[in-house]
């Protein structure tokens, strides 16, 4: 059996170890939050990239407008509902401010499902089996292409389940980009 001095020593050691681990955990959490803030402030998103040679080729998509760049948003009719819950409000805000720089398309047979997510923008309907790009890329969730006036894909984005932060950062970055090229 342990005597009182040993029990007290072990208890104090465990308490000190617990305090040390809690402080270390808080410091690491602060480092993570600092890195996330840095990423957000600098609008870096590792999931966005330039697609070499990618082009929007669908005949019903008009990207040759007065702007040098157009943001094309595609929402598959069978998109995951968890993505649409935050993607649609972010798109509503973006579309309201930058209407002339964005076109929205629903890929499927019916665009009425957008009403349940309170979509405030109009969308054109494209058939489910439409070939939109060369090379052909298929996405299950909402996605976007930033294209130049010739349809060349300059950047892309796709919504991820549970990643609302990525969606907000994307639309914020696109807004900053449009502001920059408009001045």
List the helices and strands and how they pair.
Layout: H1 4-42, E1 55-56, E2 69-76, H2 81-97, E3 102-107, E4 124-126, E5 133-134, E6 143-148, E7 153-158, H3 164-182
Helix pairs in contact: 2-3
Strand content: 15-25%
- Overall average residue pLDDT: 83
Sheet having the most strands = 5 strands, mixed
The rounded Rg comes to: 24 Å
Secondary-structure element pattern, one letter each: HEEHEEEEEH
Structural class assignment: alpha/beta
Poorly predicted sequence stretches spanning 5 or more consecutive residues: 43-50
Explain how this protein is built.
The protein has 183 residues and is α/β, with parallel strands linked by helices. It has 3 helices and 7 strands. The strands form 2 sheets. Strands 4-3-2-6-7 form a 5-stranded mixed sheet, covered by helices on one side. Helix 2 (81-97) packs parallel to helix 3. The longest helix has 39 residues, at 4-42. The N and C termini lie far apart (79 Å). Mean pLDDT is 83; it is low at 43-50.
What is the compact description of this entry?
The chain is α/β, with parallel strands linked by helices. The chain contains three helices and seven strands. Helix 2 (81-97) runs parallel beside helix 3.
């Amino acid at each position: 059996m342990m005597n009182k001095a040993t029990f007290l020593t072990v208890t104090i050691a465990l308490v000190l170890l617990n305090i040390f681990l809690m402080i270390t955990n808080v410091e690491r959490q602060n480092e993570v939050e600092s890195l996330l803030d840095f990423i957000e402030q600098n609008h870096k998103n590792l999931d966005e990239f330039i697609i070499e040679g990618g082009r929007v080729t669908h005949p019903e998509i008009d990207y040759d407008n007065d702007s040098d760049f157009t943001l094309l948003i595609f929402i598959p009719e069978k998109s995951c509902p968890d993505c649409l819950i935050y993607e649609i409000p972010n798109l509503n805000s973006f579309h309201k401010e930058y209407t002339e720089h964005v076109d929205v398309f629903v890929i499927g047979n019916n665009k009425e499902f957008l009403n349940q997510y309170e979509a405030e923008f109009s969308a054109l309907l494209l058939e489910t089996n439409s070939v939109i790009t060369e090379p052909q890329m298929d996405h299950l969730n909402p996605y976007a292409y930033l294209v130049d006036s010739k349809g060349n894909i300059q950047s892309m984005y796709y919504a991820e389940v549970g990643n609302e932060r990525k969606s907000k950062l994307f639309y914020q970055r696109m807004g900053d980009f449009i502001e920059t090229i408009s001045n």
